[in-house]
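Re: your question from the hallway

Yes, I did run it. Sequences:
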Amino acid sequence: MIKIGGNIIDDEAKLSGFLLEFASVKGKKILVHGGGKLATRLATELSLPQQMVEGRRITDAETLKVITMVYAGYINKNIVAQLQALGANALGICGADGNAVRAHKRVPKAVETQTIDYGFVGDVDEVNAAFLQTLLNAGMAVVVAPVTHDMHGQLLNTNADTIAQEIAKSLSEFYAVSLIYSFEKTGVLLDVDNENTLIRKLGIKYYRELKDTGAIFAGMIPKLDNAFAALDSGVEKVIIGKAEELQKLIEGQSGTTISLN
Amino acid sequence: MIKIGGNIIDDEAKLSGFLLEFASVKGKKILVHGGGKLATRLATELSLPQQMVEGRRITDAETLKVITMVYAGYINKNIVAQLQALGANALGICGADGNAVRAHKRVPKAVETQTIDYGFVGDVDEVNAAFLQTLLNAGMAVVVAPVTHDMHGQLLNTNADTIAQEIAKSLSEFYAVSLIYSFEKTGVLLDVDNENTLIRKLGIKYYRELKDTGAIFAGMIPKLDNAFAALDSGVEKVIIGKAEELQKLIEGQSGTTISLN
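Structure:
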């Protein structure tokens, strides 16, 4: 179960490097992709103002349309076409396809003095493991866009890290699942601006210390919370690291290995 | 094998009516959709001039991006989400997914005194019947967006009528295939402006007569050429008619039945 971040998708050379590695990964594999900047760019071209709260996009109806077009259309199908060219039999889906990932519209949330309505943002209820197994057993490399549905016809914008974690959790009942969060950095860094400060192994106690001292902050916190939640729910391995070093990440020779102890 | 035209997709009420009928169709089923006007509207909003030659869209790189976003993203995933809500286990794909439909970029073509380069438009080479059978046997209703690929990483804009015909032909080796072209009219009309002039049965001889006299013209000609080609290649039935009367079309109680004799 591999997630790639938006900064890799925005960079054609990095994406190609990653897909080359992904295509040659042995065994059953699923890729979840984000794609933030391309969606923001299209929204700007269409003069749709974008509002982010705590790193999450407020998703009105027009923004959901952009998200669906860019994530489930442009990015998903280009990744699939490239993987096919590399010899991996890829199939691209969003959470509505085969009812792969069912979610519900997030309830408006009180943040300090105001109530935040995230709009058409989904919180995951259930992963359809049987459907994913059908595809994996047919030899498919499954490519998942971070759009889910509510089983009542409504598509929902959903965090890609969360989808990766939920799918990994769900499949860990049937397989020994490794969950890889791959992005542009070499892993979890003590100093976010210095690639030489990579933490090779991050246990839960050390993580809490680093969070308390403020060494780990912002976007890394939900990612790591997701990582520990996944381990807690039966996922065998969680590794965070550089997208172009995917094979090394899988072998535990690169990146940060997350562990409960 | 059912194709719906762009004018149905543009009309929310008609699309819902059609999908309700499609969801209740018994047996293995595939839906191919177009989506012309939504793509043209987005291209206009993005200030991309659109050029049509003989009803086909000249597809430069930016237009292909729009096509992929609108057809394989927005339209495909909304149809899938609606079908899931209606109890049909839909899976949306384009031709790149599972290498469902492989094509090649159309060779520039001499038309009168000039050479027309259609750009990123695909002519179908091969349908992956085994892949489609895997999905159909798993109980999926397959929803196909009219975007193909060349197995070298290039997506291609491809005519939806042609994709429907090619898939129908390919699957007719394994199943008794009915091919339904559904759109906003009641079928093939003697007078295109008068719904009371429906031709109930159209054989190849009568078709040639009507083409010679000019009674059938424009967009209907490639559709009917496709229809006769499908019958010629083993497709059992071809019926053209109104999208909201899908069940009646399948039963031959509505629309125009195309026949070789």
